[in-house]
From TrEMBL:
Pfam families in alphabetical order: Polysacc_synt
Transmembrane regions: 12-32, 52-70, 91-111, 123-144, 190-211, 238-258, 290-310, 331-350, 362-384, 391-411, 417-439, 451-472, 484-505
GO cellular component, one term: plasma membrane
Superkingdom as given in the UniProt entry: Bacteria
Protein name as catalogued: Polysaccharide biosynthesis protein
Length: 528
């Protein structure tokens, strides 16, 4: 009994460690792009963002993708089996990941010129080749992280993620600043930034090797292919989880990739000058860190409730599952809705504060609404995966990406860059809608229409309060001054958050029981 309790505690502690590390690296990943844009300007930012989706794909697969997949395969086939069987699972997993890494590396490296040509900018070819090497790191980092996670030891995974991101961000900003001062062109600076990212991955791998040697992990794994378990069974599990967990975790990156592939080329085809098109795409890309940061904040609390769903399903406690889903989605709607509408209300001063000027404010206002849909989609995916429904999120992601591609082809020639912003919102919205329909079919969904009306009313109060205040301020002083815009933006965040939070409390959107089930609030009450 005590052993089970200790195992349960270690699982919960491990989940908390990974969640904290995940939040930290996601925040860093969003935040560093602001000073990077300030250093290299909109065209330099365009260059980096054109190639970033490829690198971002490798990072997600090596952090929240393959390590989770390996640990799940180990738990499915070998957690309580013999040492030899576990070693064979690790051996087959490594060979599988080596094959996947090569399959992703070779076309990206070999067809870099063709990909750059399709993007409309042949100068990106070398940057794509550099990025391709990040996929070669996936097998080696993932196999060690996956092994530790299968042993319920999340510390090396969490520490290696933080080290990787910390070194990456530091080197990107330092190299960009120095290279610009030394007279390198913006494409060369982009190569330096991407090389810095790969150096971060190499350092993370070295850390994992040293950690595993200290813990004598190497002696525990005897690489073999002779244990009494079918290789095809292991490969089938790896392939199944790669299709489900892997693809569904790449939603945001896939949407960014579609824009990287065709937004700039469509602007050129539409008659825009090359320099202006690069600058326009760079301005459009200002929305990515805002969406990412808003999504991280919105999903952090909601996703913290999800891990209990699998356990509740095993116990067939359907009522508890419904309560947790209701609370997860309610939290997500409240926080993501507040983040999206808050950003829309004061986007002009935020744009100036972060990116030096107000260029593209209308485009960023449209993109801000993506925060609500991306947060809902990721929360829905986590809920379905917690309940064991892992396949449909992949279907909705692929449909959403397909719609994004088609919508870009239609809306960009018609409405210019703001058409790309609308196509992004539409594609995320369709992913959420399709997933919600699926959850309805499984009889798991958000049930309270009354709550939605209350949240909408609270959002309207915040929106009109902030919009009116901003209008009054602009009547007396110009927001083009960055220091003044920063002050207005920060005060707006405090005032908007205060008004919205008060409205949420006064409208009794959360019951007392629900508040007690929210981890942070629950702990705060216990501390008192």
């Amino acid at each position: 009994m005590n052993v089970q309790k200790n195992n349960g505690d270690s699982v919960i502690q491990g989940a908390i460690i990974l969640t904290i590390a995940g939040l930290l690296i996601k925040i860093l990943s969003a935040v560093y792009r602001v000073p990077y844009q300030n250093i290299v300007g909109d065209i330099g930012f365009y260059i980096y963002q054109q190639v970033y989706p490829f690198y971002g794909m490798s990072v997600i697969l090596a952090t929240s993708g393959f390590p989770v997949i390996i640990s799940k395969v180990m738990l499915d086939h070998g957690y309580e089996s013999s040492h030899k069987i576990r070693s064979k699972i690790m051996t087959v997993s490594l060979l599988y990941l080596l094959a996947v890494g090569l399959l992703l590396f070779l076309p990206l490296f070999g067809f870099s010129s063709e990909i750059a040509g399709y993007m409309g900018d042949s100068h990106l070819s070398l940057l794509i080749k550099v990025t391709a090497f990040s996929f070669l790191m996936i097998p080696f980092i993932s196999i060690i992280r996956g092994y530790f996670q299968s042993e319920q030891n999340m510390n090396p995974t969490a520490l290696s993620q933080v080290i990787e991101q910390g070194i990456r961000v530091t080197l990107i900003l330092a190299s960009s600043f120095l290279m610009l001062r030394m007279g390198f062109d913006l494409y060369e600076i982009g190569i330096g930034a991407l090389s810095s990212s790969i150096i971060g991955s190499v350092v993370a791998f070295i850390f994992l090797i040293i950690y595993s040697q200290k813990k004598q992990t190497a002696s525990k794994i005897e690489w073999n292919l002779t244990a009494p378990i079918k290789t095809m069974d292991i490969l089938e599990s790896l392939a199944k989880y790669s299709m489900t967990i892997g693809i569904s975790s790449l939603l945001l990156i896939f949407i960014q990739l579609i824009d990287a592939l065709n937004l700039y080329s469509l602007l050129i085809h539409n008659g825009m000058d090359e320099t202006l098109a690069k600058q326009t795409k760079g301005i459009y890309d200002r929305g990515q860190p805002l969406i990412q940061l808003g999504t991280v904040v919105a999903t952090s609390l909601a996703l913290s409730l999800v891990p209990v769903l699998a356990q509740a399903k095993m116990k067939k406690n359907r009522e508890f599952i419904k309560e947790q889903i209701e609370l997860s989605l309610k939290l997500c709607i409240v926080i993501a809705g507040g983040a999206a509408i808050g950003l829309m209300s004061i986007m002009k001063p935020i744009n100036i504060m972060l990116f030096t000027n107000s260029d593209g404010t209308n485009v960023l206002i449209v993109l801000s609404f993506s925060v609500l849909f991306t947060s809902l989609a990721l929360t829905q995916f986590a809920i379905l995966q917690g309940l064991g429904y892992t396949f449909f999120p992949v279907v909705s992601v692929l449909i959403g990406v397909g719609i994004k591609y088609i919508a870009n082809q239609w809306l960009i020639p018609e409405f210019n860059v703001i058409g790309a912003a609308f196509s992004t919102v539409i594609s995320y919205g369709i992913v959420v809608f399709l997933t919600y329909i699926y959850m309805l079919k499984k009889r798991y969904h958000f049930q309270s229409v009354k709550t939605l009306l209350k949240v909408t009313f609270a959002l309207l109060i915040m929106f009109f309060s902030l919009s009116a205040s901003l209008h009054i301020v602009e009547g007396y002083m110009s927001l083009e001054n960055r220091l003044f815009a920063s002050l207005v933006a920060l005060v707006g965040v405090v005032i908007g958050g205060g008004i919205y939070g008060l409205a949420i409390l006064k409208l009794h959107i959360f019951t007392d029981r629900e508040l007690l089930n929210i981890p942070i609030i629950n702990k705060a009450i216990k501390l008192k």
